[in-house]
Amino acid sequence: MSAAIDAAIQASGLTKYFGPVVGIEELSFEVGRGEIYGFLGANGAGKTTTIRLLLDLLRPSHGSASVLGRDCHRNSLEARRQIGYLPGDLPIYPDMTVHDYLTYLSALDGRPVDGGYLRHLLARFDVSDVDRRRRLREQSHGMKQKIGIIQALMAKPPVVILDEPTAGLDPLMVQAFRETLADLKREGKTTVFLSSHVLTEVESTCDRIGLVRGGRMVATSTIEEIRRNARRRVTVTFGDGHPQEVTEVTGPLGPLLASFNGRIVHDISVEPFRLEDYIAQFYGGGVR
Amino acid sequence: MIPLLRRSIAQGRYVLLAVLLLLFAFQLIIIAQAAEVERSNAFASVANLMPAFMQRGLGSRAMLLATFRGTVTFGYFHPVVCILVAILAMYFATEPAHEVEAGLVDLELARAVPRHRLITRSLLVAIAALAGATTMMALGTWAGARIFDTGGMAMPTLSLRVQLLANLFAVAACLAGFALMMATFSRRWSTSFTTVGVVAVLAYMVDFIAIGWPPMETIAWLSPFHYYPALSVVAGDAPTARNIGVLLAAGAAFVTTAYWQFQRRDV
Predict the structure, then answer these.
(1) Does the CB of A74 have a partner CB in chain B at under 8 Å?
(2) What is the chain A residue with the closest CA to B5?
(3) Rounded CA gap, B151 and B39, in Å?
(4) Higher pLDDT, B39 or A117
(5) In the prediction, which pLDDT does B95 show?
(6) Mean pLDDT by 10 residues, chain A (288 residues)
(7) pLDDT tens, residue by residue, A143-183
(8) Nearest-CA residue of chain A relative to B117?
């Protein structure tokens, strides 16, 4: 089976120009089935443009993208049938109740919604019956965000695209969101494409990340690879009166420990891996 | 399609209800006034009040307005009525621009909803609203005739009323098509609504001014109101079927452009 068929999402040379402005340029990537993929980048880097191209809301200048083998433009309807989407800025109908909103969205494309799963999501995100009867204009930003996540997931689509899913959520709900992603990952039937600025969230939930900068993909790697290859600052305090030694280590600590040659180590501290340190190296030039 | 239609109607229900009630009330008021003038035999005085340029432009047909029958039909082409019906057409037909501006297309079109369905939905709702408007006007006339006891007065025939309403509907449908087209080219609802509103007012004025100022006739054919010569319809010498055909053909061209543009654009 080819990579193209195995990939849940595939972009090849995807390019979008807005007049003279580059939205994204020659963006190519693949997201495997069942994978949780973090799509990272600074503001204006092209994350939302890429997502909107996947959904055929924007038309590519050239290049192509596909979702589960369906071309996002030429076979857009079939591609979108596979997708659950949370926009970065959730649009609402202010006069609708939460219940009516979810009913309306589920009726739009006729995908069946499992009542049990919907109740499970509502309970997990702490949306009460009273909340469901209230109009959206009366809901807090956090509640609207929770409703947005629920509407994206409720039909159990094979591909979920989430643009800044935890924006405005309190820590408890961020945890609920992480648990939901963990459940999806355990079941292995859902591919998640997640755009976020919150690197701790990406680090804790994603299998792999793609980093986009100035409309181009500048890095793509698994979190595990990044963790393994990350340069970590190690501070060693010796018990023999020698000064503290600070060094940077890539990979296992074994060779460093072996280099102490039996000296007495009083203390050793290893700075934990931080995804932002990895990301920061791509933003040295200060370009978006 | 049904959820989209229901949502559209629910969203515009207050505007729809308000306009329908105003149109209904307007027919009642105009029949009440016409009946009052008829009872007091004052239509001859009304004829004298008509501006000279209109008498010149309209000729003998101007006198039709100075009769009970003519005044009742005036309720079908009075500027207020034309404005209300145009607002209704524009309000519902510009909905795609509102959806783009508010980001609602992101929710709708991220699902397996074909783009053309949003255009078809807006078209259907606008047409239904216009059908509702003309129906309410007909009901208003019917109710007015009963409430204000016009039994002995010469009401316009059913055939004439149907012709006027059909012609008015066609003008509004043409405007709705234009509004729909403008909405598909715009990212802001206010831009498309204002543009169509200004064009509609200009078109109305061009046609009106052409009555008394012949040079304006050279461009009056561009105005949809040119194809609604209400007094000629009342006089029975208007090519109503042809006029309706021109208006619907223009509307269809606008709608076709709207489908094409919405299909190709970024939303």
Answers:
(1) no
(2) A108
(3) 12
(4) A117
(5) 94
(6) 66 92 91 92 87 95 93 93 92 92 90 89 91 90 94 94 90 91 90 86 86 85 78 81 78 80 81 76 57
(7) 999 999 999 999 999 999 999 898 888 889 999 999 999 99
(8) A108
Rounded to whole angstroms, how far apart are CA atoms A231 and B186? 51
**Predicted model pTM:** 0.84
A260 part of contact set with chain B, CB < 8 Å? no
> Hey, what amino acid is at B73?
T
Strand (E) or helix (H) holding A51: helix A47-54
Report the pLDDT value the prediction gives residue B58, as an integer from 0 to 100: 67
Which residue out of A103, A108, A136, A160 would a mutagenesis test of the B interface target, given it has the greatest number of B Cβ atoms within 10 Å? A108
- Among A77, A104, A151, the residue with its CB nearest the CB of B114 is A77
- Picking from A57, A151, A160 by the largest number of B CB atoms within 10 A of its own CB, the best residue to mutate is A57
CA gap B51, B55 in Å, rounded: 6
* DSSP alpha helix (H) spans, B50-188: 52-58, 68-74, 79-93, 95-102, 104-108, 115-147, 158-185
Cβ atoms of B261 and B207 within 8 Å: the answer is no
Min Cα separation B172/chain A (Å): 28
User: A36: exposed, middle or buried (C-beta count within 10 Å: 0-12, 13-18, 19+)?
Assistant: buried
pLDDT in tens, B165-176: 999 999 999 999
Contacts of B249 (CB under 8 A, 6+ apart): none
The answer to whether A59 contacts B266, with C-beta atoms less than 8 Å apart, is: yes
Do B111 and A93 count as a contact with CB atoms less than 8 A apart?
no
- A286/A280 Cα distance (integer angstroms): 10
Which residues have CB under 8 Å from A273's CB, separation 6+? Answer: A226, A227, A230, A232
Which residue of chain B comes nearest to A73, CA vs CA?
B264
Number of domains in chain B: 1
Q: Which residue has 């280099």 as its token pair?
A: A259
Domain hosting residue B59, numbered range = 2-264
Give just the sign of the alpha carbon dihedral B106, B110, B114, B117.
Answer: negative
**Average pLDDT in chain A:** 86
In total, chain B counts a number of residues equal to 267
Query: What is the tens place of the pLDDT at every residue in A175-217?
Result: 999 999 999 988 888 999 999 877 778 888 888 989 888 888 8
Q: Which CATH class is domain A1-82+158-223?
A: alpha beta
